[in-house]
Design a protein that fits this description.
The protein is an alpha+beta fold. It has one domain (about 25-124): enterococcus faecalis protein (Nuclear Transport Factor 2, Chain: A). The protein is built from three helices and seven strands; from the N terminus they run αββααβββββ.
Length: about 120
């Protein structure tokens, strides 16, 4: 018998406006994230994505000192790989990397990181 748990959908994300609970990443303790981001990590099986965002944000010099960042995961047309990119909020790409394989259920997703808090745009 196969596990038929519901996958993450874009409609799911619309329910998140603000947050009542904060989460702290166990490896990147200076960062917090919201209920919406936790939902994406859980339902989209994407804890790896949250970890990658925090890892790159803390290690890439292009991203240091920025109080507002826009993170985007965009799957490629073949549906196996993706690009993870970071912008400054004015559509200027500051940094990006290729991901060879992902089974993330959405074609793309955007997060905002505001003063070390990762959130969905609707939660701002």
């Amino acid at each position: 018998m196969t596990d038929k748990k519901p996958k993450l959908t874009e409609a799911d994300l619309a329910q998140f406006t603000g947050t009542e609970q904060w989460y702290r990443h166990p490896l990147f303790r200076k960062y917090l994230y919201t209920e919406g981001v936790q939902y994406v990590a859980e339902k989209g099986e994407a804890y790896w994505l949250i970890g990658d965002i925090f890892m790159y944000q803390s290690s890439q010099k292009e991203l240091q000192g920025e109080g507002f960042l826009v993170w985007k995961l965009t799957l490629n047309d073949e549906g196996h790989g993706a690009e993870l990119s970071c912008e400054d909020g004015n559509y200027n790409k500051l940094w990006s990397t290729k991901i060879d394989f992902t089974d993330f259920p959405l074609k793309n997703i955007t997060f905002w990181c505001v003063d070390n808090v990762l959130l969905l745009p609707s939660e701002y």
